[in-house]
Predict the structure.
Amino acid sequence: MKKLSLARQMWLLRKQSIAQCRERRLAGRARHRAAMSTTSSPVRWRTVVIHVPPKVVAERKEDREVLLDRLDSIVKALNRPRTKVKLDFSRTPRVFPGGMLLLLAYVELLLEGLPAGRLTAKCPPNSLPAQLMRHFGIADELGIPPSSSRPAHDSVVGWRYLTGTNADCTPIDALLQSYQQATSAAIPEGLFDVLSEALVNVRHHAYKESDVPSSMQRWWLFARYDEPTNGDDGSLYIAVYDIGVGIQRSIQAKPILRDWLDEQLEKLPPLRRRAYLHQSLLQQAIEGPRSGTGQDFRGKGLPEMMNFVKASASGKLSIVSGRAQYTCSALGSSVSGCEAGLLGTLILWNIQLKPKELLS
Amino acid sequence: MSTSRTISVANEFSPAPAGRYRDDGPFPGEVFRDAILVPALREASEVTVDLDGAAGFGSSFLEEAFGGLVRVRGFSEAELRRRLHIRSSRQSYEMRIWNYIQKAQQLLH
C-alpha cells in the first residue's frame, strides 16, 4: 500500500474536521428549531386576592349576605381563565360555626374540582382561621404551612367536623357521646333524633332534581361546645349544611302538591307573591302538616326539629333555605326574607347546656 | 304459638339507628322491620321491643319500622295492640309509635 504523504494526511484530517464541524452545526440548528417549536411565550396567571369578611357568620342575615357575596366572588374569579384565587384571612378574627360551615363546604367542593394551587389561603400565623383549617384537614391543600397552624386554641379543639353522603348516624352518636363524657353539661334528650332527621332529609330531598354530581351530594356538619362556667350556661352549636335544591324548590318540584301550592299563592298579596313565596313555603314545610312528598306518613323531620327546640327552655333553631330564614325558640317563631339566596339548606341549632348536677 | 320474644334494638340491630329506607344508610327502619321485627312477630305470640340503650330514634326510623308494619306488611292495628309491646324509658317514643300505627291504619281506609 502506498504510504500517504504528510501533506495528504493533514488534508484528510482537515476535511474530516470540517465535516464534523458541519455536522455539529446542523445538529445545533435542529435542536434550536425543535426547542423554539415547543416553547411558546410564558402563560401569565393572575392571582385575585379575596378578603374573607371580618366575621364569618351565617346565623345573622346581614353577615350571611356579606359572606355569600364573597363566596360568589370566589366562584366567579375561578371561572375566569388563568386566574388563581387567594383567600385572605388576615382581617378575620372571628369565626362562627354556621359561617365556617358554609365557607368550608364551598372550599372543599372547589378544591375537589380544581388543580392544585388554583385556590390557596393566607392566614396570620397561629390565627383562629389557620388553626381551624388545619383542624379540618384542608390546610395543606390551601398552602397553609403546618408550623403556623397547629391547633392549640381551646375553642379550635372543641370544634368537630363530619361529612357524609348517607344517613349513617354512627359518627353522630360518637360525637354526642364524646361531648357527654368530656363536659360537665347535660346533652339534651332528643338531640340525636333531630340530627338523624336532618341527615335523612338531605338523603331524601336535598339532591332530588339536582345538577350536583353524585360524588358531591353531601352533607356537612359542624359542632362546637362551650363549657358551662361559674354558674353560666354553656352552649352547643350545631350546623348542618347541604348544597341541594333547597326546601322551597323541593316542594315546588312535586306535581302532587301543585294544587296546594296554588292555594298558598292565592293567600298572598298579588304584588308580593314572589317575594313572600319562599317564606311561605319554608314556614309550611316546618309548621304545616303536609309533607313535601305529598305522602301523609312522611314529612315529620322538620316539625320534629321545631318541637325539640320549643320543648327546651332555652335554645334556638334557624333554618335558612332559598331566600328565607325561619327561626324558632320556646318563645315563638318567625320567618323573614333574605335578599341573597342561599344555595342549599343550612340548619343551625344553638342549645344552652346546663351543668349535669343542676338537672339531677 | 305461645312464646314471647324481647328485641333490644341497641344490642340486636344498632345503637345508632337512623333513616327510613334500605339505601338511606346501614341501620334504617325498613331493615329493622323486615329483618328483625316481622320475623319475630311471625314466630312469637308476643313481642316486646326495648328501645333503651340506643342513642335515639328519628321519626323516619320509627314510622317506617312500626307504621310500616301496617302500611307495608299487612298487620292490623288491633293485632299489634294485642301482640306488640314497646319498652322505653322515654314515654314519648311509645306514644309516637302507636300514633304512627294508628295513622297507618286510618290511611288504609
Observations:
- The mean pLDDT of chain B is 96.
- The longest strand of chain B covers residues 4-8.
- Chain B touches chain A at residues 14-20, 23-28, 55-61, 63, 67, 71, 90, 100, 103-104, 107 (CB under 8 Å).
- The two ends of chain B are 30 Å apart (CA to CA).
